[in-house]
Structures are given as C-alpha cells and as structure tokens.
Amino acid sequence: MTLYEFAKGMFSFQFKIMGWNIQGVENIPAEGPVILAINHQSIWDPLVAASSLPRKVSFMAKEELFSIPVLGKVFSKLGAFPVKRGQGDMNAIRQSLAILKEGSVLGLFPEGTRSKNGEIQKGLPGMVLLMEKSKATVVPVKVYGTRKLLTKGWGNIAVVVGKPMTPEMLKAPDGVENRREWIADRIMKAMHELSIAK
Q: pLDDT, tens digit, for every residue of 3-22?
C-alpha cells in the first residue's frame, strides 16, 4: 500500500463518519489526462476531493499551504506541489504538463484563492492553457461543506463531479476576443450548475 492509498483510506474513513456524500464519480474518465476544475472554500478541499475520487490526483496548490504545520507535509507526501500566485510560475506549469502528459490527473482550483463567501468566483484562464497544451479532458467538481469542516462539516460534506468536457467541446466561437477567458467562464459555469441530487 502506498502512502497515498493509506492517507486516502484514513481520510475517507473520517469523512464517511461525518456524513460524506459523493455523487458523479462515474464521470471521471478511467484513463488519460484529466484536469479537475474544483471550487475552493478551504484548505481541506484537496483532501476531501482526492479522497472522493477513484484515480490518484496531483494538486497544484498555493505555496503558502506548504508552510502549515502537518498539513503542509501531508500535501507534499500526497503529490501536491506549490505554485506562486500572481505570477507566471514556470516550474508549476512544467510540473503540471508533465503530470498530464503521462496520462495522470491534475487537480486545480481555478479561482486562484479561497472564496470568502462560499460563492464560486471567476476562473483564471491558466487552466485553459494547460488543457490546450496537454489535450486533457476537463472535469468540473463542486465541493460542499468544507469551509468549517471540523465544526459544521458533519452531515454537510459533499463532492459532486460533473460531466467531462473535452478540448473539442470547449472551443470558443469565431469572433470571441479573449478565447481562454471565454472557455474558463464556460468551465466555471458548468461547475456552478452542479448540485447535490436528493
């Protein structure tokens, strides 16, 4: 058993006790490069999302998270890697493309930072660049109940996985001035529309 599998099992057990609800995992392609576009509410989002999905996920996460005691080490051991926000971090881009080109799954938080009010914010076009360079399928994912996971997460944790979107499905119409922004908006709209089925 790998460290990733051990940690995934441990966190899955804890989240199940807390009333975890997972929907749409059948939408994750069984093979090939995949970009998960996930909303961002708290530092727990990578652990909740990764524990919910059948394939191993490598996360691009802001470098500040790696300085958090214990959690930072956990993120690193589970294959997460840092990105410097507010600048073109070429190391993070190269690492992302390497993951995708080997046919693996990359987890991104395209809002760039945690939402202060829980509402989904505008997505950054960097994920579109990665999609175009790698020809990866994009899968929108919406996480619920992680903002105050340890105090108010009980019975409220949910992960909803949307339908996969191939690069061919995400082509901008002719005449669109900012193609990558248009595509990013479409991905975020698909994420926003995900809801928990009763």
A: 788 888 888 888 888 888 99
Please give the average per-residue pLDDT across 118-131, as a whole number.
90
CA–CA distance, 99 with 84 (Å, rounded to integer): 18
Q: Is pLDDT at 86 greater than 70 in this prediction? A: no
- Residues 180-196: tens digit of each pLDDT: 999 999 999 999 999 99
CB 141 within 8 A of CB 161: yes
Beta-carbon neighbour count of residue 12 at 10 Å?
17
Is the distance from CB of 161 to CB of 27 less than 8 angstroms?
Answer: yes
pTM of the model: 0.90
For the record, the structure tokens of 101 come out as 């080109």
d(CA 7, CA 25): 19
Question: Is residue 111 within 8 Å of 121, Cβ to Cβ?
Answer: yes
- Concatenating the DSSP letter of every residue in 43-65 gives TTHHHHHHHHSSS-EEEEEEGGG
Contacts 24+ apart (CB under 8 A), 80-89: 80/46, 85/112, 85/113
Burial of 26 (0-12, 13-18, 19+ CB in 10 A): exposed
